[in-house]
Write a structure and sequence with these properties.
heterodimer, A: Rossmann fold, 4-stranded antiparallel sheet, 7 helices, B: mainly alpha, 2 domains, two-stranded antiparallel sheet, 1% strand, globular
């Protein structure tokens, strides 16, 4: 179990260019394959900023390593396909659900090795079924869907790319309890953590204001407060590893 | 009764004609030179509009007044400057005036844009300059071929026409591009997050902006000669040109203008795209600010 961390964050910080305001104080964090991390903290504590930084959607200071490599320039689109950030509010291009599900397969990065190459309508139908949504929804325009349905479609669109890491920014805030349960089930299934015999190599980062959900969905909790990394603790071993560790002591991966 | 009425109206008309005749000298055959009084008659038409606006409280009377005065002063100065430069007929002052006109066009293109980014003036001036000068050079050196090449009578009005159209296109295109980027930020970022390159994420907005910028000239081209006779052709006809010659010139000018708009718009959009995105396939949102 001496695997190198999948993601290494080294002093990642970000300031607003115009006002100079610190959005995120330097964060160092190691994330290993198979981890499920709950990112908690009050609104405005930098959870979104940190997730966006990991997806390389903003310019930040500090270094980020993925599989021991720094990702820059034209390697970034393919990286973002593997490390997908799902924003709190889902967005779509004008058009039907199917057109939106097909969208990522039109990008150049879908021709790169190791990624799923095409959209399969029957796979999408199966996924919809798991959320008890009828296949006809594929032909509806996205802006006619409810907020909850949009959230589900956004997840299906992301899962179709077979990501290695999912960065979920309060994904179930707009969902009714039943849909939320199905959403959580889908995430567990994707992560593979419900399967005791098989070690998952996928990583989940999840933010939520609901402590019980964080408890259900994650095994390690990272606290952000005022743009600073606070406590990171592992729920199965003794909690209370201080920020700034090199990740070695937080490597005891939890398998339920 | 009928007779009396016709008689009296006929009398009134002839009286009017006689009164006008005291002001207006009869025009010599073939001349189209205007007196200032004749220009004044045209101005009174606008005055009527201003009065109506005041009476109805439309709130545009002041704008009508300032625009009219501005236009008069600007054109009067242009007339004086052109007179000087026409007499000089040296390349340097002609090109100097052309450069000045170009910079003013670039600046006024930006003035009409709501969302801006730090180097927008530089990019707009560069785009207007490149597009207008390439197109005008080709027109002057290969098509019109005046003697000498820098004849201000040809160069200045041609450049002016090209600049005016290019600047409108550039400001329409950039305004659309920047405001659409802003309003579709979520959509664009979602595409990036799903593996789009920066170009893939902006491509739709880019092509919509190009279309928006080209629509006015395409409309003008499609109704030219049916709904309206373009300004330049009207001028030539008034000046006594052969209709077929005037038409040929007008067709040439339309192509030239459309070409200049196309080059200017694409260039300014590409420069803007490069400016607000980076090589890490990110959009630098903080650069785009509402003015």
């Amino acid at each position: 179990m001496s695997k190198e961390p999948l993601l290494q964050l080294r002093d990642i910080s970000r300031s607003d260019k115009s006002s100079g305001k610190r959005l995120l104080n330097p964060v160092s964090l190691d994330i290993r394959s198979g981890e499920r991390i709950g990112l908690v903290g009050p609104s405005g504590s930098g959870k979104t900023t940190l997730m966006r930084a990991i997806a390389m959607l903003d310019r930040f200071s500090g270094k980020l390593f993925y599989q021991e490599k720094q990702i820059t320039g034209d390697a970034i689109p393919a990286y973002r396909r593997e490390v997908i950030y799902l924003s709190q509010r889902p967005y779509f291009i004008r058009g039907t659900v199917e057109e939106n599900l097909r969208l990522p397969f039109r990008f150049k990065s879908s021709n790169q090795q190791g990624t799923f190459q095409s959209f399969e309508r029957n796979v999408a139908t199966l996924r919809l079924e798991e959320f008890q949504l009828p296949p006809q929804i594929l032909d509806q325009p996205c802006d006619s869907l409810s907020g909850g349905e949009q959230q589900v479609i956004a997840l299906i669109r992301a899962l179709a790319l077979g990501p290695r890491v999912l960065l979920l920014d309060e994904p179930t805030a707009a969902l009714d309890p039943d849909t939320r349960d199905r959403y959580e089930k889908q995430i567990h299934q994707w992560h593979g953590s419900s399967n005791v015999d098989m070690e998952s190599d996928r990583v989940l980062l999840w933010t939520s204001h609901d402590p019980s959900q964080v408890h259900r969905m994650t095994r390690r909790i990272v606290t952000l407060d005022g743009g600073k990394l606070g406590l990171t603790m592992d729920k199965t071993t003794n909690p209370g590893h201080e920020h700034g560790d090199n990740g070695n002591d937080s490597s005891t991966r939890a398998l339920s | 009764m009928m007779d009396l009425e016709t008689l009296s109206s006929g009398f009134a008309l002839s009286l009017q004609a006689r009164m006008l005749g005291e002001f207006f000298e009869p025009r010599p055959e073939g001349s189209i030179s205007l007196s200032w009084l004749e220009v004044g008659v045209a101005a009174s038409l606008l005055l009527v509009n201003a009065v109506i606006s005041l009476k109805l409280g439309l709130g545009i009377a002041k704008r009508i007044g300032t625009s009219a005065i501005r236009m008069t002063i600007q054109l009067a100065i242009l007339g004086l400057v052109l007179k000087q430069i026409f007499e000089l007929a040296q390349p340097a002052p002609v090109l100097g005036l052309a450069a000045l006109m170009t910079v003013v066009a670039g600046v006024s293109a930006v003035k009409r844009i709501d969302h801006r980014y730090p180097s927008i003036y530089r990019n707009a001036i560069f785009s207007v300059w490149t597009s207008a000068w390439i197109v005008t050079s080709i027109t002057v050196l290969l098509i019109v071929r005046p003697q000498p090449w820098h004849s201000p009578q040809v160069l200045i009005p041609l450049l002016g026409m090209v600049l005016g159209n290019s600047l409108t296109g550039i400001s329409l295109g950039l305004d659309r591009f920047l405001s659409e980027l802003r309003s579709r930020q979520g959509e664009i970022e979602t595409m990036l997050a799903l593996g789009a390159t920066r170009w893939e994420s902006c491509r739709n907005v880019f092509s919509e902006s190009t279309r928006t910028a080209m629509i006015p000239i395409l409309n003008t081209m499609s109704v030219a000669g049916i709904v309206s006779i373009p300004g330049m052709m009207t001028g030539q006809l008034l000046a006594g040109a052969e209709p077929v010659e005037a038409v040929k010139y007008q067709i040439m000018i339309m192509f030239v203008i459309a070409g200049a708009i196309g080059i200017g718009v694409i260039l300014s959009l590409l420069l803007t795209y490069r400016q607000v995105t980076n090589e890490d396939h990110q959009i630098e949102w903080e650069q785009i600010r509402r003015h």
